[in-house]
Amino acid sequence: MAYPSSYYAATANDTPPLVSLSGDETADVCIVGAGYTGLSAALHLAERGYSVVVLEAERVGWGASGRNGGQLGASQRKDQRSLEEALGKEWARRLWDLGLESNALVKDLIARHEIDCDLKPGLLQAGWKRSCATWLRSEVDYLNTHYGYDAVRYVPRAEMHEMLATDRYHGGLLDSNGAHLHPLNYALGLARAAREKGVRIYEESRVLDITHTDPADVKTAVGKVRARHVVLACNAYLGKLEPRVAGYMMPINNFVATTEPLGNEARRLIRDDVCVQDTKFVIDYYRLTADGRLLFGGGESYSPSLPADLAAFVEKPMLRVFPQLEGKRIDYAWSGAVAITLKRMPHFGRLAPNVVFAHGYSGQGINIATLGGKLIAEAIAGQAERFDWMANLKTPKFPGGTWLRYPALVAGMIFYAMKDRLP
């Protein structure tokens, strides 16, 4: 099976398809899903000496791990002051430390396993409104003062215009620990590293049923894995496999496009080759690719179905930011589902003593999902403190459960999108 058409699929490192599961196998751990969570868990477990089988319904990195914007953060999805208000300073500090660890972990895995994924430094948050720029300035001051974090600095409006060829923004926050990369090649690199450690990865092996026994049987249409531990690492592509956790997250569509190669104009658009995300509720995010294209994600959609013309759909917000790109060709446009939670924090937990899950990264998946895999490996190895601590973060269900959660989300998105348009 081919990957969905995208710039990432077209520029993926040459990796032959892996075979499907056929027949019965045994392992210490069976992981469902070959995205960042599953691959990181597999790699870390194999390094601890566990035998691991990964079952992937499509291809390695087929879902959000191979279609996202490629932005690597250095924190949780929510800002620290919000976390302090919701959880208290001690819990917020622990989440901050985990965020920094997650960023360093991704970079370490890339370096240690020589993953070729175009890693480049710098993440710029761009204030869409004056009030947003004021908030970003205060956030820099807060992180400098209360967390000793000097990797961030405030970027005033005049400098923003020098860094970005647009007058849309009123100020910014530049995090030098943030970065961007080719997300599919990062996933493929994790898979290669895991296989080199003995992990068995089977593609096109959709899991249909899991018996809640010890050991558990993880069944596909033509095979079965018997394992002492099971990891659900499906994120937005969980489907109906485990209804008990489906209502805690919402799969939403994400839309991305890339222009034709822009030559020298590319570095005029983004002078320092950082990745950018704005402060709107329905955010725009963009960066340059290794071959000098603008990769842009954005667009408001309140329908579960996809727009008829994805390129035109993403081009509209892109031209609001960079009108000088009018007439430039869109070479690739694609969509993919990301999983959000109501509080925009990841959802970890156990369905049984030997069945764990992690998902709902809410747009912060490259770093937090990679860390999630490491915490899962710790938990299975009997060092569950950090995994259980994350699992104790309260994650409410979406109102209306799996049936009515989407209309409720749409109502909220329309409200906040209207607020984005106010001065």
Automatic annotation (TrEMBL):
Answer whether the UniProt record assigns the keyword Glycosyltransferase to this protein: no
Annotated ranges, domain FAD dependent oxidoreductase: 28-378
Q: Which GO terms describe its molecular function?
A: oxidoreductase activity
Entry GO terms, CC: cytoplasm
This protein's record includes keyword DNA repair: no
What InterPro entries does UniProt report for this protein, alphabetically? FAD-dep_OxRdtase, FAD/NAD-bd_sf
* Keywords, in A-Z order: Oxidoreductase
Q: What is this protein called?
A: FAD dependent oxidoreductase
Source species of the chain: Parvibaculum lavamentivorans (strain DS-1 / DSM 13023 / NCIMB 13966)
Q: What is the lineage of its organism?
A: Bacteria, Pseudomonadati, Pseudomonadota, Alphaproteobacteria, Hyphomicrobiales
